[in-house]
Design a protein that fits this description.
CATH superfamily of the largest domain: Type I PLP-dependent aspartate aminotransferase-like (Major domain)
Radius of gyration: 21 Å
CATH topology of the largest domain: Aspartate Aminotransferase, domain 2
GO molecular function, one term: glutamate-1-semialdehyde 2,1-aminomutase activity
Enzyme class: isomerase
Oligomer: single chain
Shape: globular
CATH class of the largest domain: Alpha Beta
Catalytic activity: (S)-4-amino-5-oxopentanoate = 5-aminolevulinate
Helix content: 25-40%
Number of helices: 15
Low-confidence stretches: none
Main location: cytoplasm
Largest sheet: 7 strands, mixed
GO cellular component, one term: cytoplasm
Mean pLDDT: 96
Bound molecules: pyridoxal-5'-phosphate
Length: 430
Amino acid sequence: MHDISRSTAIFERAKQYIPGGVNSPVRAFRAVGGNPLFMQRAKGAYLYDEDGHEYVDMINSWGPMILGHAHPIVEEAVKAALAYSPSFGAPTLREVEMAELICALVPSVERVRMVNSGTEATMSAVRVARGYTGRDKIIKMEGCYHGHGDSFLIAAGSGALTFGTPDSPGVTKGTARDTLLAPFNDLEAIEERVEENKGQVAAIILEPVVGNMGCVAPQAGYLQGLRALCDRHNIVLIFDEVMTGFRLAPGGAQELYGVTPDMTTLGKIIGGGLPVGAYGGRKEIMDFVSPVGPVYQAGTLSGNPLAMAAGLAMLNYLQGHPEVYQHIERMTTSLVQGLTRQIKEAGVKATINQVGSMFTLFFTDKHVIDFETARTVDTQKFATYFQAMLQQGIYLAPSQYEAMFISAAIDEKLISRILEASRRALATLG
Ligand code: PLP
């Protein structure tokens, strides 16, 4: 057991002032036990905690650090922007450059509005879809997480699922009534939902590749089926690409699977680690957004100069270095192949889902394709595995219902190190 006395002391202090001592629930480590580690700094593939320990980072701020931590390109861009003032409350050239880049790369986006988080992006996208269609209901998939907007805290994934509150108290019955549910990867169920609510469904929203019940890929024909269904019923199809946008491909999952939604939400990745989000879509729909149209949506810090500078630096770099995508996918595949071999050798009931540089090791022998199968996992086994990895300097996502994200800073040597740690961790599972 390594000494984490500083982290422990800070956590005790934090609990006096912050609910649960953290500003986002999964960070509290409740699903895996023990005290959370307070991080001091990070560089490349590594995190360093307040007690000075080094960890190989497998979550990368839940996705955005595609190039690894404190990449010089991003650091320089933020420093330069800071010297010009961190905020104006007036439009800036960088916001236009960001919008041009998103419109050029994300197939569904003709107009885009910047916001400050993924939550704001999904809330706003749904409001616009409702304004555009004049309908109230939305359909979301069980186990998908779209941030903490009231409409989405129904059978929600991520931390809501981890803490056993996928339906949060505080969401009014009226709001909950307007959110209909369907299992992920089940076209028949969603067709039924649409038929039962004919002419009332404004939008279908989903993570095209789910990250928030762990990584779950869409089955062949699923996204195409949703596209056709939305076309038949004039429903706005929204892909929440907060995790997948610019990660699975420059144009996100919609580029990878060749299915173009009507609207797209983006988040953390386009800020290169700074707080940001965006929603966009067809011009005809986005023209409903104020000040062109009647749907109101605004933000004091939206399009923040530091976030734009960081995001543009990273996205432009990725544009100029497409080999980064090949590298992170190759590293992830190599890790997943190694883990798959280990599971077999150790005789552990586990299965792995991978799409590009996202993956989850699920402690279940079921093939995980939806919320129901995701819930068959052994969370206790995961917690034991997590702690055994942490003790060996590997920082995994502290919940079974999350994806892990590989950065460009991870190389073959580190993959070997992670696999070596994993072999020992699996051996502790008995
Ligand atoms: N949508 C998806 C798919 C996400 O993964 C998340 C966060 O992880 C969100 C929305 C919410 O984003 P934020 O935490 O920035 O509000």
